[in-house]
Amino acid sequence: MRTRRLIIGVIIALIVIIGAGFAFGALHKTKTNAKTVTLGIMPGGKQEDAIWKVVKANAKKSYGIDLQFVNFTDGDQPNKALASHDIDLNAFQHYAYLKSWNQSNHGDLVAIGDTIITPIHLYSTQYKSVDALPDGATIAIPNDLTNESRALHVLKNAGLITLNSSQGLQATVKDVKSNPKHLVIKEVDASQGPRTLPSVAAAVINYNFAQSAKIPASDSIFVEPFNADSHQWVNIIVANKKDRNKQIYKDIVSAYNSENVKATIEKEYPDGGEKAAWDLKF
To answer: Looking at the keywords, is Ligase present (predicted)?
Structure first.
């Protein structure tokens, strides 16, 4: 009897040990399979939230990734946080901004995927077309270096001016090569573009400021085309250079570059204020 009890005791002990082993293995497996990526963004309102909600769902469903967002309100902070590895990725800037930031901060951040482009418009409340702009007309453009260059390229693509090619994509008003209509180019703070519009013939205004000021789409007389000039304004997902080939980060790009995200962008921006950029031809 004593021997039988001993055998039963040994069997029970073995069951407990094996069970604990399975539990530990399951726990270890759960921890190993838990994949979290933190991505820094700037607050963009309900429309942007709707887009990121779909991206997050794609990342979870297709790749088993828990995509977590870190919100920043200062445009300089997402890159600093990424460079110091406080976050894994960020998605708030275009190629031109990243290039400028890397140069100014001796940074080593790289784009790993395209997201959207927000075309900039030339608006006018007085004229219905670019051709109707008279000789000597005043055109307002943003005065910060990035948006000034972008606005000048809009005027160039509208056929109003030409630019010195040596400046490439970093042009200022000093780089205007020809100005057949003798336009007066007035530099103003980007946020003041909408207020300036009633007093000038036309103004190049960023979409977010035009939208906030409720400027109707009918006042747009020219929209930035998708070409070599505008490619630098494509928004991007950014990583540290040494992490650029990590599969988990490539999966986040794929989660964004999907048909349901594109459909959501089109739904949230029926006026074309934002366009899915990953399959555009520049």
So the answer is: no
Distance of CA 216 to the CA centre of its chain: 24
Beta strand pairing call for 109-114 and 235-240: antiparallel
Residue 137: both structure tokens together: 């007309």
Strands (DSSP E) contained in 180-232 are 184-188, 202-205, 220-223
Please report which helix (H) or strand (E) contains residue 236, including its range: strand 235-240
Alpha-carbon distances of 226 from 74, 77, 120, 275, 279, rounded to whole Å: 28, 29, 11, 10, 11
User: Do 63 and 137 belong to one domain?
Assistant: no
188 shares a domain with 128: yes
**Average pLDDT of adjacent 10-residue blocks, the chain of 282 residues:** 46 44 38 76 93 98 98 94 98 94 96 97 98 98 92 97 77 94 97 96 96 93 95 97 98 98 97 96 92
Host domain of residue 50: 34-118+231-276
Amino acid at 88: D
Q: b or e along 191-208 (b: 16 or more beta carbons within 10 Å of the residue's beta carbon)?
A: eebbebbeebbbbbbbbe
Task: Say what the pLDDT of residue 166 is.
Answer: 58
